[in-house]
Structures are given as structure tokens and as C-alpha cells.
Amino acid sequence: MDPLMEEEIFAEEQATGTSLFSPVTTTFQFLAAHGWFVLGGIAAAIYLYHKFRPTLDRWRQQREDAEYHKNPDIALARMEAVQRAREAQQQKLLADSQRALELQKEVHY
């Protein structure tokens, strides 16, 4: 690049106060000035999350239970889905055990 052109670009960046690295520089300046506050905020958020998570989980569970009591079809559909999943797992287990038994017989003969 032409040195005169570089000087013009540099002078223009200084005059306008913008550069290619302005967002990065701004971020670093913010962290340098307020880093401890950011770190403290993150630590407080983590502490509050762990403190209130069991309460939120209980609240969500109570909402789900209330939904099931209002509409028993939802509970029935969930129980049927669980039963179908169990049956599918059982079928897969039986098929895998049959396959393993056949392989074991082939190896011994």
C-alpha cells in the first residue's frame, strides 16, 4: 500500500475516532475499567442460579402436576408413551440377546 495513502487513512481514523479495532479496543477498555464489577455480577448470577434452582424445579413440577390433574388425558398419554418405550426397549433387548446367542453358537461350532 502507498505510504501516503496509509497516512491519509491513519489521519482520517484519528480525526473520526474510529478504527478497524474500535469494538475490540472498546471492549478491553470497558473490562479494564469495570472488570471487577463484571466478575462480581457473574459470580452473583451463578450463586443465585444455584440457590434458586431447586425452588424453580419444584415450581415447574407443581405446574406439571396441576396440568395433569386438570386434564387426565395428558397423564394417560404420557403413561402410554412410557409403556410403548418400555416395550420397544424390551423388544430390542430380546433381539440383541438372540443375536448374541446365535453368534455364541457359531463361535463354539
UniProtKB/TrEMBL annotation:
Membrane association type: Single-pass membrane protein
GO biological process per UniProt: endoplasmic reticulum unfolded protein response; retrograde protein transport, ER to cytosol
Keyword field: Cytoplasm, Endoplasmic reticulum, Membrane, Selenocysteine, Transmembrane, Transmembrane helix
Localization (cell): Cytoplasm; Endoplasmic reticulum membrane
Keyword Membrane on entry: yes
Family under the similarity heading: Belongs to the selenoprotein S family.
Protein name: Uncharacterized protein
Organism expressing this protein natively: Spodoptera littoralis
